[in-house]
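Sequence in, structure out.
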Amino acid sequence: MILYNFFQRYKFISVYFPLIIYWLILFSATTLPTQHMPKTGISDKIEHFLGYFLLAFLLCNTLYFQDKKVNMKKFPVTWALFIAAFYGMVDELHQYFIPGRICDINDWIADITGAVIAGLLYFFLKMYFQEVQKRRNISLTN
């Protein structure tokens, strides 16, 4: 699998670096007071959904390609959902202390929903690519 080999070979730049950069951007955006936030023109719940969708997807990929924690590698979606939900809760609590921000359980629900959808997408994409690889290997041996 070309993409899998690329991620394995260039793990830092293709797996870890995108997660680190994105998480820093997400944290920075949630730390800005309301008046300094750029207007996107979409619902704040959609922003939360999309923000945590991408975070969870990147987390799934990072946990799948890391080699230190076997349990996390074996169940990347489960761990990514747990991490994203916990971080979403902490992030909502931290926003209570940011001027113009509020701690809103509905935002947290949007965070979790985005993370769950990303986890499902990652799970099905991983299964699809594994099946493609399995079929390719079977056809090469016949």
